[in-house]
Amino acid sequence: MAALRHSGLRPLSLARKRLSAPSPARQSLPQTLSRPFSASTARMVSSYYSGEPEGPVVKTDIPGPKSKEHLAALDKVFDTRSTNMLADYTKSFGNYIVDPDGNTLLDVYAQIASIPIGYNNPALVDAAKSPDMVNAIINRPALGNFPSHDWASVLETGILKVAPKGCDQVFTAMAGSDANETAYKAAFMWRRQKERGGPSVEFTEEEMSSAMNNQSPGASQLSIMSFKTGFHGRLFGSLSTTRSKPIHKLDIPAFDWPQATFPQLKYPLEEHAEENAKAEAAALEEVEHLIKTWHIPPAAVIVEPIQSEGGDNHASPAFFRGLREVTKKHGVLLIVDEVQTGVGATGKFWAHDHWDLPTPPDMVTFSKKAQTAGYYFSNPELRPNKPYRQFNTWMGDPARALLFRAIIDEVQRLNLVENTAKVGDYLFGKLEELSKKYPGEFQNLRGKGQGTFIAFDNPKRDQFLAKAKKFGVNIGGSGANAVRLRPMLIFEQGHADILLGALEKIVTSW
């Protein structure tokens, strides 16, 4: 295909001079994540990423000849069957991903919601070149046994600087699945400590010997409750709480743990308020019933603020406040899985900040945009009563913690959470117009007031996603029919206009 610059897709009006980021040491960083968004902030974001392409460029089919050549070589040594597209990260920048054939796509999928402030971000390049980063990479410590002398400072100036309200401690891990599994372990140990009479009560000989045979009382008879169509990872424990797709679970032994119905809301929300309220009330009744009657008692309930892999399923703040009340009432912990929703994408740094909870969650798990993983908590009893009970060799990665610190500094400096809220409102409004113009193509539009964490259903979803690349956009799906938007925090109104133009071209080209 001939090289194509998409006429009709409005390019960003960007300065021609590429700017480099100030070093974090030279910046005067704001101390809050919630100051009012201003036009000057918008200009600051634009000029900062002025090295971006002006818009998508599609030169070949995707994959093109060079990509196919690289994929053939890769397939000999690595399973490539899940490949979405091959990328050349040396040429990707800001909101744009580039492939070996020179195709330049506006990336609103962002490595499955995992890139917060753009490809080849200058501030992150500076952080990667720092002596602290070199030290963390080449002397990677086993943090549980040999933490560095400045590990507390790294945590306090980074990960803990943006800790959710009510949470002042963190356990660092390797990935989202790992974060959830360690949170489950914390819940089980907390529950058994309470049943024994407190953390000072010693284990019995029977408990220690039976644990070695995977039998009770040492191996506790406890569960984690999750929700239908939820996703919490692919490791053994987390997989027993994942309910989004059979392909994740087939052939894998699983625990007999309870699952409750996640409210299936109807859209537009304002037209189905009474019906949706009844669905949420019924879901909460089911949660309470399962807590009281399931034959393996739940130590915790885990929930996503928005069920991301299961189809971008939403519930109201009232539902989550009700869930907090039910778990408190029955002495069950509440784990909020913010692996995909955390770090600003919903217009709040943490999505559960939208809920106005009466008391904080007991644990909040994170990964993806944080570029590291783990869980936050506040109750000291969630720290095990003995060493080595919550332990592995690495216990996270200090290099990734340093990277997250640099990300936090940029998010604050450029006011990117507020930027995302503002741009999300604009994008949602324009998508509402498209849904009225093409009602069969943009169904069940959802995510109003949730930043750029927006989705809609399309009856030909897989073809929709494939065709998007032809019009210069990399976009993802979830569930059976959902097209999900996962732009970066540096996504601006100009990028939204490019995306909207491409979306309309897709649905008018069938």
In short:
The protein contains 16 helices and 16 strands.
Model description:
- The protein is globular, with a radius of gyration of 23 Å.
- The chain has a 7-stranded mixed β-sheet, with helices on both faces. Strands 12-13-16-15 form a 4-stranded antiparallel β-sheet, with helices on one face. It has a 3-stranded mixed β-sheet with strand order 3-4-14.
- 35% of the residues lie in helices and 11% in strands.
- The protein contains 16 helices and 16 strands.
- It folds into 2 domains: 213 residues, Aspartate Aminotransferase, domain 1, CATH 3.90.1150.10; 240 residues, Aspartate Aminotransferase, domain 2 (3-Layer(aba) Sandwich), CATH 3.40.640.10.
- It is of the alpha/beta class and 510 residues long.
- A hairpin with a 5-residue loop joins strand 3 and strand 4.
What is the CATH topology of the largest domain?
A: Aspartate Aminotransferase, domain 2
Gross CATH architecture of the largest domain: 3-Layer(aba) Sandwich
CATH class of the largest domain: Alpha Beta
Query: In percent, how helical is the residue content?
Result: 25-40%
Low-confidence stretches: 1-41
Strand content: 5-15%
Number of helices: 16
- What is the rounded distance between the termini? 19 Å
Quantity of strands, as a count: 16
Q: Strand pairing plus helix content: what structural class?
A: alpha/beta
What is the number of domains?
2
Radius of gyration: 23 Å
Taking the sheet with the most strands, its summary is: 7 strands, mixed
Overall form: globular
